[in-house]
Amino acid sequence: MKSITIKGSQRESVGKASTKALRNAGKVPCVVYGGEKPLHFSAEELAFSKLVYTPDAHTVVIELEDGTKINAILQDIQFDPVTDSILHIDFFQLHDDKEVTMEIPVKVAGNSPGIMAGGVLRLVNRKLKVKSLPANLPDYIVADISNLEMGNKLYVTQVASEDYKFMHPDNTVVCQVRVSRAAMKAAQEAAKAEKAATKGK
């Protein structure tokens, strides 16, 4: 999985006043959980753009001024409801020997016979939650629709991998090919025409 480096400064004071001062200076207060104790730090808001405003999944290397480097993943993010600026971010520290749960984006591949016949693809789950060791986290999950006829569904069991396990029930639908209105109308008109032709015989 691709990694993004974020340079930050460790926070000594975590009170409301210092948090407000950070935000006024264009910085985001953050916390890293999963270590011996929570680590508080801050970084420029612009540093998070490639991490937050993207459909892709990334791990993060947090580099602090004292030379400390922490591998982590984004766990939670809070936005200002009015300005949409980032208020706070929680990270979770990665350990090579400990499994972690993360949401991974779904990418569609292949040509569906159902779509070529006039069906419409509906991506039910744009992201899927997986659990694995950090080294086995995928950049994305491939949903191959090559065998989907009109009306068919692709389930998580059909995109499974030995590298990770899904945190979803087996009957979770990843995507489906729905009958389009045009195809439905054409089928209805064909049925009517066949019925009329049968009556006329």
TrEMBL record:
<feature type="domain" description="Large ribosomal subunit protein bL25 L25">
    <location>
        <begin position="6"/>
        <end position="91"/>
    </location>
</feature>
<comment type="subunit">
    <text>Part of the 50S ribosomal subunit; part of the 5S rRNA/L5/L18/L25 subcomplex. Contacts the 5S rRNA. Binds to the 5S rRNA independently of L5 and L18.</text>
</comment>
<dbReference type="Pfam" id="PF14693">
    <property type="entry name" value="Ribosomal_TL5_C"/>
</dbReference>
<dbReference type="InterPro" id="IPR001021">
    <property type="entry name" value="Ribosomal_bL25_long"/>
</dbReference>
<keyword id="KW-0694">RNA-binding</keyword>
<dbReference type="Pfam" id="PF01386">
    <property type="entry name" value="Ribosomal_L25p"/>
</dbReference>
<protein>
    <recommendedName>
        <fullName>Large ribosomal subunit protein bL25</fullName>
    </recommendedName>
</protein>
<keyword id="KW-0687">Ribonucleoprotein</keyword>
<dbReference type="GO" id="GO:0005840">
    <property type="term" value="C:ribosome"/>
</dbReference>
<keyword id="KW-0699">rRNA-binding</keyword>
<dbReference type="InterPro" id="IPR011035">
    <property type="entry name" value="Ribosomal_bL25/Gln-tRNA_synth"/>
</dbReference>
<comment type="function">
    <text>This is one of the proteins that binds to the 5S RNA in the ribosome where it forms part of the central protuberance.</text>
</comment>
<dbReference type="InterPro" id="IPR020930">
    <property type="entry name" value="Ribosomal_uL5_bac-type"/>
</dbReference>
<keyword id="KW-0689">Ribosomal protein</keyword>
<dbReference type="InterPro" id="IPR020057">
    <property type="entry name" value="Ribosomal_bL25_b-dom"/>
</dbReference>
<comment type="similarity">
    <text>Belongs to the bacterial ribosomal protein bL25 family. CTC subfamily.</text>
</comment>
<dbReference type="InterPro" id="IPR020056">
    <property type="entry name" value="Rbsml_bL25/Gln-tRNA_synth_N"/>
</dbReference>
<dbReference type="InterPro" id="IPR037121">
    <property type="entry name" value="Ribosomal_bL25_C"/>
</dbReference>
<dbReference type="InterPro" id="IPR029751">
    <property type="entry name" value="Ribosomal_L25_dom"/>
</dbReference>
<feature type="domain" description="Large ribosomal subunit protein bL25 beta">
    <location>
        <begin position="99"/>
        <end position="179"/>
    </location>
</feature>
